[in-house]
Amino acid sequence: MKLPQSIVDLLYSTVYLPAFDRPYYHLDGYMLRHWVLGDRSPERNADHPHWHGRRGGWLYRLLTRHVAIRAHTILRSDHDRALHDHPWWSISIVLKGGYWEVGEPTQACHDAPEMYELVLRELPWFDRRKPLAHQVARRYNIHWRGPGSVVWRRARSAHRLVLPHCDGTLHAPTAARTLFVMGRKSHDWGFYPQPFRRGHKVPWRQYLGLPLSGEEGGSA
């Protein structure tokens, strides 16, 4: 699904930019996160080390248990090749910039792993203006998400993001600016270090080498 540019511009000016008055905690060098809806929810801020503590009324808290919205400013690609899922269903709306979204490997990836590896390595430098780049990427379940793109994901949908001209070690020349809608937590999130083995999931704290306790943590 793709939104018209007029709607994208309206969301950017009236929803994305005003959210900067309500910061969530940021992921250093990777993503800036601000609340559109959820700033006064103790449940949504359980892992926020500097939460202001202001609580919404019962109706607000009931609503935000089921849905919350953040403004995300993505500065670079995901660091490593491991795909990750999320604790809730989600919807991403890209407003400016964009990214390649790498999904779960297709049969083509299994049939030609060397070619798949080459595509992943060269992906940050694909020319998204050329139809051939999109054709090759789609074969391996990789899709360009540019301004106006609306992407719905199940909680267990595994993916990673690759920004143009950014291999994960440097900031991208242009940040991806998105609205991120999330549902109610349904499971603990984690990483898939071996994407060809769909069931081999490593809990996020274990994968990142952190103590095995806590809540949502660094989930994007």
Structure, explained:
With 220 residues, the protein is α+β, with helices and mostly antiparallel strands. It has a single domain (5-186), classed as Jelly Rolls. The protein has 6 helices and 11 strands. The radius of gyration is 18 Å and the shape is globular. Mean pLDDT is 91; it is low at 214-219.
What fold name goes in the CATH topology slot? Jelly Rolls
CATH H-level superfamily title: Jelly Rolls
Helix/strand structural class: alpha+beta
Given the structure, what is the number of helices?
6
Number of strands: 11
Characterize the overall form.
Answer: globular
The oligomerization state is single chain
Can you tell me the number of structural domains? Answer: 1
Quick structural gist:
The chain contains six helices and eleven strands. With 220 residues, the protein is α+β, with helices and mostly antiparallel strands.
